[in-house]
Amino acid sequence: MLDRRKFLKQTSVASLGGLMLSKVPMAFGPNASMPSPGVQLFTFFNVIDDDVKGTLKKIAAAGYKNIESAFSKKGGYYGMKPKEFAAMLKDLGLAWKSHHVLGAPFKLPPGAKLPTTPDGKPMTIPPMLNLQDNFQQLVDEAAEGGVEYLVCANTPINTMDDIKGSIKVLNKTAEQAKKAGLEFAYHNHDAEFRAVEGKIPYEIFLAETDPKLVKMELDLAWVVKGGTDPVELFKKHPGRFPLWHVKDLDKERNNILPLGEGTIDFKPIFKAALTAGMKYIFIEHDMPADPFKSIQTSIKNLKQLSVG
């Protein structure tokens, strides 16, 4: 299995007719309802660039309404300019809510190799912009496309100096995002919950980024794998988690599965959605064998995750 963080490490990014669920009652508490379902396009990393429009059509047909874009082997926004990609989504009845960008430059670690394509050839990765060097351009492009949220997908956290540098980049980007009319957020993996020089990076991020400007996109599976209870995070930092990534894990927390096919108990997490300030959820499955089957399974199980 190649999850996002492993992919980002391997590619040096780390060191990347359906069901209308908007009114489905959820375990959110009184008078709360499930937002329209969204999907993170990293789920389709291995297939989307072969047929961008066709892939998006299938996503819409599965019942998804909101899109969070990610990295593309074509570069840019799946080979398009922001306005062009936004127009394609609109024509398909999809809303472009969020976009992932890198926090730091692409550097292939010594001895590391790029993942291979299905035919066994080394994957080619186009130059990718990052917030450390290109934050203003990335903010401007997101604003041009009409995206609501710009999200830092990954940033260096191996040392305390890395963490301090990353916090500086996040705060600086958030200020410019606000000026451009954007919301800004940070997306976690499980590594943020492992101590670095005796401190937990995610706790430092929460404490030292501006809570009014830097929101959090909480990847529920990774936070659970990291040994932290999402509900406790919501209680300590209410309203700071407007974006959620939703996927499941097996009992050993080693393999990613579609929502509802693993062992994570989502009901108490969703019940705390109002405390979290949750606004959008994005189904994600890192490098699945069959991404279309995965999102179909997840949306079916999402509907069934009701108060009951």
What is the fold's blueprint, element by element?
Blueprint: H1 4-10, E1 38-40, H2 52-61, E2 66-69, H3 82-91, E3 95-102, H4 131-145, E4 149-154, H5 160-179, E5 183-187, H6 201-208, E6 214-219, H7 220-225, H8 230-236, E7 243-246, E8 248-249, E9 256-257, H9 267-271, H10 273-276, E10 280-283, H11 291-304
Helix pairs in contact: 3-4, 4-5
Describe the structure in your own words.
With 308 residues, this protein is α/β, with parallel strands linked by helices. The chain has a single domain (4-300), classed as Divalent-metal-dependent TIM barrel enzymes (TIM Barrel, Alpha-Beta Barrel). It is built from 11 helices and 10 strands. Keywords: Isomerase.
Q: How many β-strands, per DSSP?
A: 10
Q: In one word, what is the shape? A: globular
Q: Tally the structural domains.
A: 1
Radius of gyration: 18 Å
> Approximately how much beta-strand content do the residues carry?
5-15%
Q: Helical proportion?
A: 25-40%
Number of helices: 11
Q: What are the secondary-structure elements, in order, as H or E? A: HEHEHEHEHEHEHHEEEHHEH
The major beta sheet can be summarized as: 8 strands, parallel, barrel
CATH topology: TIM Barrel
Question: What structural category arises from helix and sheet content?
Answer: alpha/beta
Return the CATH class.
Answer: Alpha Beta
The CATH architecture category equals: Alpha-Beta Barrel
Give the strand order of the largest sheet, numbering strands 1, 2, ... along the chain. 1-2-3-4-5-6-7-10
Distance between the termini: 34 Å
